[in-house]
Amino acid sequence: MKTLSTQVVIVGAGPSGLLLGALLHKAGIEHIIIERQSGDYVLSRIRAGVLEQGTTDLLDYAGVGARMQREGLRHNAFALIFKDAFHRINIADRQGGKHMTIYGQTEVTKDLMDHRAGLGLQTIYEAGDSVAVHDFDTDHPRVTFNKGGEAMEIKARFIAGCDGYHGVCRASVPTGAIQNFEKVYPFGWLGVLSDTPPVYHEVTYSNTERGFALSSMRSMTRSRYYIQCGIDEKVESWSDERFWAEFKTRIDPEAAKRLVTGPSLEKSIAPLRSFVADPMRFGSMFLAGDAAHIVPPTGAKGLNLAAGDVNVLSQAISEYFQEKSKAGIDNYSARCLRRVWNAERFSWWFTSLMHKFPDTEGFGQKIQEAELDYLVHSEAALQSITENYVGLAH
Ligand code: FAS
Ligand code: PHB
Question: What's the CA gap between 252 and 93, in Å, rounded?
Fold first, then answer.
């Protein structure tokens, strides 16, 4: 077996793993990232689109924010539609000038990959399902894997489990040492990416009697749209024509008239769940991002929560190596979980407010409309939703 040694092994080269790598490098901490898939496969996944200011500030700090600053769209507001009426909700005026940035997760991942390649930092791709974590209950954890038919081992002081919801790290924790909290929603999101001008210029969430819809974008020429769909629906049963016809019923009538449709560049169905693993640390192994928690994407929190985790984790590991202090790593889980549960609550609340639930149709729809009507006419409620939407401190 060939053995490598470093200070931190990061499992997973999604946004969590790559951003943690950039932050550890900036702190002078050696690390290796190991990824199951190819880099192209990682880039092919279309996911998040909205970055909180805390996330964009962190990307700038990590030295990977230049293209995002040039090409990202700065948004000071988002909108809600219900009972066919459009309500713009100003964030910046209510939250001290804080804003959101529209910049796709794919672009964030590409910038992180390019930054990493430029520094000559080691990323081992296509490790497949051979990755295994060992001895993380000691000060000498190891990661083993096979690459090109050769058995490999990486020795390190810490393992960062950035391997997502289906990863190997959380799955390797003894069942008695972890509590999993989960809620699966009775619907999914059918998402479409198209090279068409966005029908709204800001992220717009629709509550209709036919179900939820979301209008977002990746640029002013590339739209990202979603509609709530059945939990068992197959993407093959949704032609582009069927998607556009349904989407038109879920936006306001004026927008439906001006909507520009076109061929889908990507079309996929994502399940919606809320999930939290507690704790997020197991001896020398730390979970970050989707490996530790999942939110329904309604509140645009998934990627932003991941950024918060790796910000805290990189500081904690840096304190350990540079100041010989264990305070940060000992406090990592409790500090992250407080922010995570706040975001879980907001994402659950916003999902519950905007989606059609099979078991509470008539009465449930009227209650949702009443709450939305209260929300858009109450400054206290608008302060609350905008405070949560821009995100809490890391
Ligand atoms: P990721 O899952 O992105 O990355 C984990 C990485 O680990 C992957 O590259 C995986 O290949 C790798 N890996 C897994 N097992 C491994 C193993 N055994 N060995 C080595 N590597 C391994 N968030 C939003 O805010 N808005 C959205 O619209 C949105 N849409 C989403 C749609 C889908 C289908 C999914 C799954 C998530 C979505 N999210 C959304 C959330 C998403 O953006 C995540 O929050 C974000 O990808 C988190 O990044 P990571 O923690 O890096 O996890
Ligand atoms: C997206 O642009 O993909 C997006 C925007 C807002 C959300 C979720 C996803 O709440």
Answer: 25
